[in-house]
Amino acid sequence: MTPEIERMYIDSEWVEAEDGATFDVLNPADQSVIARVANGARREIHRAVEAAHAAFKGWAALPPKDRGRVLLRIQALMEERRDDLARLVTLENGKPFEEARKEVQFALGYFGWFAEEARRIAGEWVPSPQPGKRYWVLRQPIGPVAAVTPWNFPATMVTRKIAPALAAGCSVVLKPASATPLTALALARITQDAGLPRGVFNVLTTSRSRLVGDELLTHPLIRKIGFTGSTEVGKGIMAAAARQVTRLSFELGGNAPFIVFEDADFGPALDGAVAMKFLRVGGQSCICANRIYIQRSIADRFIPAFVDAVKRLVVAPGFEPGAQVGPLINEETRAKVHALVEDAVERGARLATGGHYLTEGPYAKGFFYAPTVLLDVTDAMPIAREEIFGPAAPLLVFDTEEEVVRRANATTFGLAAYFYTRDTARLVRVAEQLEYGLVGANDATGYTHEIPFGGFKESGLGREGGHEGIEEYTEVKSVVVNLG
Ligand code: NAP
Ligand code: MG
């Protein structure tokens, strides 16, 4: 028996691809096929853009408070269905179920935050330098938006874009990652049940990403692209968008330094380092610690404690109670992590634990990798320069504050950085000098809805969340009024 096809959501209808094509979604814990999903092509892309275009003016014309009401209903339905959504997240992404529940709880909060922010998109009446003139500055929704999201947070990556876009009055065509389209489709169902008007939100499922670049992102009716994914793909999109100067927001890759000064509060620094490396999708998060710098005077104490903590991590399929680290998303990702680890060892790093695939018993069919700690890593090694995106922690040692700040900033990335110190003056100095969009000072919990999130340098463009998040989906218009 062939499983039923999961349809995509276009113009408030559930549709298959015109040619009937599908792609499979796998459970990364055992490689079983969990769904066959409609594989959209040119026709579906154009239908979705046209639906978003047709819906835009009506949605934009609603008072923000009324748009906010719909968003609050979406939030409430997400909360009601939280555990069902979390099950989908674990099934298609692999992360532990408890972590998936936290993700969904966090993801739905974007609707609440932006429902309120919608009411505060205010303009200005600017005092005129001349008599007889008035200057009126207003913000308007930019138009139909194309959103492209990755697989590591199948719920949050979607809501962090669509909540501000919808709140601002934009319509959206979402292209979720082909590894994790099911959560996005469940969100589409929720928007339908919440009464979001026809065509305002469309989910285009497809594994044909080249076509997405050629037909969706460069479509003349698309006024804005919100993309989260790799820096490499982002650069390609930026080049293509140049053709029509489409507005862009990018959340791209990272290479986060995690710095532990000798005056740090030891326990929280240790827990923070383990959590920021291993307990966010098993290291597959753009803000995960990628390089852990320890001041030499405490290295003898910190390193063994860190290695012990990593050895105690519970690696298991996401639905196992107590699971802390699940499988990686696919073989390509696992092979990349392993290649970086092996390369580091060849260049002189030492393995303190891990460094291999997990292939026995409950791990046999999934993409599991042993939590890994590498010692004697240098800044020049690829594992310290590239985004690892997996459960491997390179440990590096430093001597002075000036040195570690310089080393931390010596990268083309600039998304997140963390440091631990109890010296207040140092806290301020280092926070000011780190060239990163998010800085955790004695904190390794990441960002929240109320603050802008985004990257310096090649880690991104624009911000998501905060007041800034909604402005990304607006255009500014200056009206010069001549009173004659
Ligand atoms: P990716 O390969 O760049 O894919 C991201 C999205 O873009 C997916 O939906 C993907 O579709 C699509 N895509 C791929 N190639 C495309 C193309 N040529 N044209 C248009 N769309 C294309 O990234 P990933 O491997 O899924 O995710 C990992 C990366 O995302 C990491 O580098 C990570 O740092 C970054 N990330 C950043 C943030 C942040 O907030 N800064 C958050 C999460 C992840 P398919 O799924 O079909 O390939
Ligand atoms: Mg990819």
Structure description:
This protein is an alpha/beta fold. It has two domains: 5-252 and 459-481, Aldehyde Dehydrogenase, Chain A, domain 1, CATH 3.40.605.10; 256-449, Aldehyde Dehydrogenase, Chain A, domain 2 (3-Layer(aba) Sandwich). It contains 15 helices and 21 strands. The strands form five sheets. A seven-stranded mixed beta sheet has the order 15-16-17-14-13-18-19, with helices on both faces. Strand 8, helix 5 (156-168) and strand 9 (172-175) form a beta-alpha-beta unit. Helix 2 packs across helix 6 (181-193), helix 3 packs across helix 4 (97-117) and helix 3 packs antiparallel against helix 6. It is globular and about 75 Å long. The mean pLDDT is 97. Bound molecules: NADP nicotinamide-adenine-dinucleotide phosphate and magnesium ion (MG). NADP nicotinamide-adenine-dinucleotide phosphate (NAP) is lined by residues 148-152, 157, 175, 177-179, 207, 209-210, 212-213, 228-230, 233, 236-237, 251-254, 286, 387, 389, 415, 460.
Question: Which labels suit this protein?
Answer:
484 residues; alpha/beta; Aldehyde Dehydrogenase, Chain A, domain 1; 2 domains; 7-stranded mixed β-sheet; 15 helices; binds NADP nicotinamide-adenine-dinucleotide phosphate
| Spans of at least 5 consecutive residues with low confidence | none
* Annotated CATH homologous superfamily of the largest domain: Aldehyde Dehydrogenase, Chain A, domain 1
| Count of helical stretches | 15
Report the top-level CATH class of the largest domain. Answer: Alpha Beta
CATH architecture of the largest domain: 3-Layer(aba) Sandwich
Return the domain count.
2
Q: What's the mean pLDDT score?
A: 97
* CATH fold field value of the largest domain: Aldehyde Dehydrogenase, Chain A, domain 1
Q: What fraction strand?
A: 15-25%
Coarse structural class:
alpha/beta
